[in-house]
Model the fold of this input.
Amino acid sequence: MAVSFDEGTGIFTLSTKNTTYQMQADGYGYLLHLYYGRKTRGVMDWGLTFADRGFSGSPYDAGDDRTYSLDALPQEFPTQGTGDYRSTLLVVRDSHGTYGADLRYTGHEITEGKYSLAGLPAVYANPNEESQTLTITLKNERLGLTVSLLYGVIPGKDIITRSAIVRNDGQDPITLHKLGSACLDFTHGRFDVITFCGRHTGERQLNRQALTHGVYSVGSRRGMSSHQYNPFVVLADRDTSETHGRCWGMQFVYSGGFFAEAEHDQYSQTRLTMGLAQEKFAYDLGAGEEVIAPEVIMSFSSEGLEKLSHNYHACIRENVCRGKFKHSPRPIVINTWEALYLEFSGKNILDVAESGKALGVDMLVLDDGWFMNRNDDARALGDWTADEGKLGCSLPELVSRVNALGLKFGLWVEPEMISEESNLFRKHPDWAMIVPHERPVLGRNQLVLDLSNREVREYIYFAISGLLSQSNIEYLKWDFNRSIASVYSHASDTQGRVLYDYVKGLYEILERLTRNYPDVLIEGCAGGGGRFDAGMLYYTPQIWCSDNTDALDRLHIHYGTSFGYPAGVIAAHVSTCPNHQTGRITPLRTRYVVSCYGAFGYELNPFRLTDEERREISTQIEEYRSDREIIAEGLYYRLSSPQSDNYCAWEYVSPDGSKALINAVIPHNHGNAPVVYVTPRGLTPGSLYRDKWSGEIYPADALMDSGFPLKMPRGDYESYTFRLDRL
Ligand code: GLA
Done:
């Protein structure tokens, strides 16, 4: 049984293949956290300690027992106003302005299968995959507040998910000022906190630092999960490495603002929490209303970060991504953005398509610039009508012509946006999020549509479905090119829920589109990787990783991204040199080696290629086709850190261990430098492997023990590929 309950002690145990999670509804009705770690038998309530703590108060019902304090005890759903002064998950204000809610356990239910969440993405269990749900009910009588804590357990994947449904069962309205989804309390330990920080064109750079007293907090106040901090965080023992030590992850299945806080408290205890961003959040709950805290995916590894990543990779790949494209090979694309930007004609597009076809790609993606008046990026968003003058024909006709060349057709859209210079804005200025009597903050000269408004959602759905039903469009690149700053809905009288309702509105549109157009592959994008999260991956099984296509910068971006997300969902393209973001010139081979992730393609003008480059690209495409299954479905190993090693190497191993693909880049060459050795992992011990390219035969054990040498580089940015087959 994945979930069990002991009536006598009030102890709940969640069991997965390699982990155990335990909590207890104690005699006062508080839900205390007991354990999350290596799989174990027994009851861990002996881990709780009680002492008379000055300035840490006790609940009234504890009477003279001053040793019981919620300020010191590990909890599951800490709530503000209970004498716990640490970061909490819930802040409630009643209609008189009084804060706080003392929540007590009233009951629970254990059900087969993994719960789903109305209107929000959530991990699902596959047919025949064991899963269970535990729902624990907490109540506060004064407010008539009911909180249902949801725990989903997928034992085979070492995954435990959390969410909470907060319902106002009272007579009077209440307002939630903070709503978190998951809390992990540790009574002792010295930890590092690992986050993935960045910026536009520099997303998800690994940041690891020791947690000391105070609160280390990351998050997004931008209405999107953001380029700046990814909603995936890890807490690890100080000595945890790739292959050794304990670590715990939290990943938010949500694409809007979030917080993730790690607090080391006065008693040297640690609390990790994750939930909805507090900024501009004041969720009014009228009598009978409820709100859902988005899901957090938790996992634990006692074997280092690599195992933790493998758990998340499997979960995202198998239990988050959905639809026809979950396992099917993604098309190799040629994208027009870095090839032509906004300046093209229908003829240019067909020329690019034709040469793309000659190179061997599967699909042409027509990026920004195809719709009326879109000759620069300051106008026309919202008016999704093709510019037939510019294209030289209608969109359906262009699509047919591309199809006639033997290529599929993909289209860029940015449906959540509106330009002031657009027909849509002239007709519906109140559909843009603008605070009345304020001048809005512009981002790339555009405004954000109010997706909390049903009419706007209808408009977007029909605009996009109109495009899809008129032409044979088989792929959409769904972009989102600014952060949200002005939060106001003309359609709502409760502005504190607009950002949350916006994200739910986005999910509603995507759900409807994916349901009605199951054959269309949607790629997520937000100025590159500004919304690279598990929430989007539920609808868009691949995401454009970054607007930075420079091979060297991408090494760092892919490295950071790989901790929480599998290679199969990462979109990466080979672009031209000098690179448009950095001006760097790297070998074409290196650009390929760095870009061959799960959703691969080219983003360059094929007419500027030499014949030799053309030949090389055709070979790359063949190579990618033969390797893409292992890339998309294999186990991913980080063999070095580009932050601290003088080389970057990574590896994919097929699930049965019979094949391995090892890629490496030495960014900088030095005179008379020491030889770089790469040490692979995950090969079958006792076996021999042959490298497809050199013919060399390697014993797996020796390779995994002391590695093999890379040839001396001939210059900067040299890359290496090994394709090992087990003999
Ligand atoms: C964003 C995307 C790019 C490109 C442009 C088009 O920046 O990330 O790939 O589509 O928009 O305007």
User: Anything to note?
Assistant: Residues 321 and 538 are 5 Å apart (CA to CA). The chain has 13 helices and 37 strands.
